[in-house]
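Possible race condition, two jobs.
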Amino acid sequence: MDELTMQDLRDAFADKAESKGLEIVKGHGYSNGTFFDMEVKSPTGLRVYVMIEESRDEEYVNERYPAGGAS
């Protein structure tokens, strides 16, 4: 199995969001391929901002996201 890329994760998230009736308001991928962000809106107007960042540097992740990598 090929390693997943950030583009694969972004596409999967967007596909799932759209299949649930959410509108992709805006989204960005970054040329270094280490993170993307996306804003989605529900039919009721709720907006959610999502950012997924890749890092294999455990020290960096623990400093940036002290709750174990999730924020």
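Job #2 (started ~2 s after job #1):
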Amino acid sequence: LRRNFPSCLSSWKTPPHALSSSQPEAQFKAATNGLPLAPLQTFSEEEMMIKSTVKKFAQEQVAPFVSKMDEDSKMENSVIQGLFQQGLMGIEIDPKYGGTGASFFSSILVIEELAKVDASVALVCEIQNTLINRMIGKYGTEEQKATYLPKLATEKASSICISEAGAGSDSFAMKTRADKKGDYYIINGSKMWISCAEIAGLFLVMANADFSAGYKGITCFLVDGDSEGLHIGKPENKLGIRASSTCPITFENVKVPKTNILGQVGHGYKYAIRSLNESRIGIAAQGLQHQVAHMATQLEAARLLTYNTARLLEAGRPIIKEALTDPLLLYPPRPSPARHPPFPPCTVTNLSPLDAPPVLPLPVESVIR
């Protein structure tokens, strides 16, 4: 991306050539800043080039290793290096720090194209771009940015440490502590289910620096992966995204300079909430909220389908396909087996090729997992 698409820095400043008609274009002007708004399903030339480039990279440099990485539960080193070489680990990082300088939307496009081939690789890219890089970019000092962003853009993977075994569903009940000792903080505690732990060279660690303040004592620390006292445990044997390691991490008197506090002391919980909300865009709604999220997604999809069709019509674009898609099909008033198959599409797909069982050689079985 850095080499080929420096123009990716801008978002929609001009509509695509196909939309450049005088009267319809004027109707696309946003009332707030006068910039034209693009139809939701239409990409700029730069965005199309991003999708094409990442698709080619995923097919040529990731796809050949998917089965091996899944079987070994380990990310191939050449794949990680390829992500850096293609500029996919510093998508929003300012070019002055060695990043691509593209948009958040570009990150989502990259994650989508990678996920089509391997969700584990997409997760590595997603954590780096939508969590770590953005948090340092937003809350880091100039010194922190100059120290860490160039490495994150070119050579160092990263992760965030929030979850703890004893905290249950309440992440803010964490027990990991950070005790101030002069110009340093001493971190002690343990974290669970830390994604990409095995390949990370930098961790954003949430620890409580003032238990008397409750969750308002939670502070975010920049901790190097080779810090003395930081121990990464055995990876979990997971059902899916196996190439992306998920490990416990123990902190035993890990010494961190106070200059490595990200943002302000006691504001870690705020940063975590804001950043996780943003990063969820890249992984969508999962887990126990699937049913509620599914209904909400159907409703939103119907609404966006309607909006997008109207915008395409005003732009003078063909709308035959969109107009024939009845939004009611997305959420029928009564359950219908024809409209709501009992299995997810990937499950149905898996049963299609000669009724083959879901054994490991079939690529689609990994999608089900």
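The chain has twelve helices and eight strands.
Logs attached separately.
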